[in-house]
């Protein structure tokens, strides 16, 4: 209804310049003619605004008003040529065509980048974790339930551990799901074939049944996995670390968190591949994310503003940023520059329109292996690139352990009936076979 009323308003306003224009064309008195032309100009301006607001916004966005005014100003100028009888007829036509041509060029030029951007292929919203499910997936091909292999790594030999009985419930961060899925593939019993194998569907909920069965191995991401652990729904979670707030949550409940290092990963900062910057110092990172430095020129780049993206407070990557910052406060990021999903941050940095400005961060494996695209460039830190060698040696400054995390209450697991399997599973992860999977997945084994 509002659109219809808007159209009616525009149509009624259109009568003002139309009547003024016709009247001015036939009246010879120059004073009256001038007044009528002024009225027609006001009317044309109102219509230009209305067209920009009601009709052009969805197509042209921020260019809608400027294009509308260019179009209607052109109509007005050409009208004036004929109303006032300026120049000879042939000259009027040449001038009118020239004005119209210039208006077309001015109207089209701002739209071209927007059309080009809309034609670019869009990236995925998030990594599709079922591709890494421990035992693959099943779906129907020509009415036949068909098995499709997982992307999770395999030992290539029989595992020395095969769990039975009360199986540990697992949860963790997105970037670590392919790894703990590979652990499960080798040590847990294979399920019955079914669509979205309920016990091992990564998007299931440990707190509720999925398709009539209890979930065993899911991926609730960092904050969700931690809550599942301290609430007793998960027995082991796989995270890059825990925040001070998460430690306090455990302390308040009288719980003891046990962090077992199972591998090493690099925390990386990245820019668009077209950005000229190659290296930042640790001090540069602190100055940028504290808000002290806001232009790439101040850290060796070109004269462009820095748009430093961030993740939510409870995410694993934001926890790592806080560790790097130490006592230096992180400047709050605008809502549009904070991304709930890591893929959102990646896409913004990878987007060609942001190549001059954007700066993001993540864990190396997620960007390099799970996304597997080359639209971003990993920065060296203090002159050291995040290579497997520099990560393993500790030379890369942001190389950190990641963990299998369990929780104890009065020296017992919250689900003591699973204690034997929990201990056996963690011991196996630290064995040569478990560490082989750490390296095969793309991480660095613990020494």
Brief summary:
The protein is of the alpha/beta class and 447 residues long. It folds into 3 domains: 2-119, no CATH class; 129-235 and 411-441, D-Maltodextrin-Binding Protein, domain 2 (3-Layer(aba) Sandwich); 264-399, 3-Layer(aba) Sandwich (D-Maltodextrin-Binding Protein, domain 2), CATH 3.40.190.10. 44% of the residues lie in helices and 14% in strands.
**Uncertain ranges:** 116-125
> In percent terms, what proportion of residues is strand?
5-15%
Give me the count of strands: 12
Q: What oligomeric assembly is this protein in?
A: single chain
Count of alpha and pi helical runs:
15
Secondary-structure element order, N to C: HHHHHEEEHHEHEEHEHHEHEEHEEHH
How many structural domains in the coordinates?
Answer: 3
Mean pLDDT: 85
Q: How can the largest sheet be summarized?
A: 8 strands, mixed
The helix-and-strand class reads alpha/beta
Written description of the protein model:
The protein is elongated. The model is unreliable at 116-125 (pLDDT under 50). The protein is 44% helix and 14% strand. The chain is of the alpha/beta class and 447 residues long. α1 runs antiparallel to α2, α2 (30-60) runs antiparallel to α3 (64-83) and α3 runs antiparallel to α4. The strands form 3 sheets. Strands 3, 4, 5, 7, 8, 9, 11 and 12 form an 8-stranded mixed sheet that branches. A two-stranded antiparallel sheet has the order 1-2. The chain has a two-stranded parallel sheet with strand order 6-10. It folds into 3 domains: 2-119, no CATH class; 129-235 and 411-441, D-Maltodextrin-Binding Protein, domain 2 (3-Layer(aba) Sandwich), CATH 3.40.190; 264-399, Periplasmic binding protein-like II (D-Maltodextrin-Binding Protein, domain 2, 3-Layer(aba) Sandwich). A hairpin with a 2-residue loop joins β1 and β2 (144-148). The longest helix is centred in the N-terminal third of the chain and has 31 residues, at 30-60. The chain has 15 helices and 12 strands.
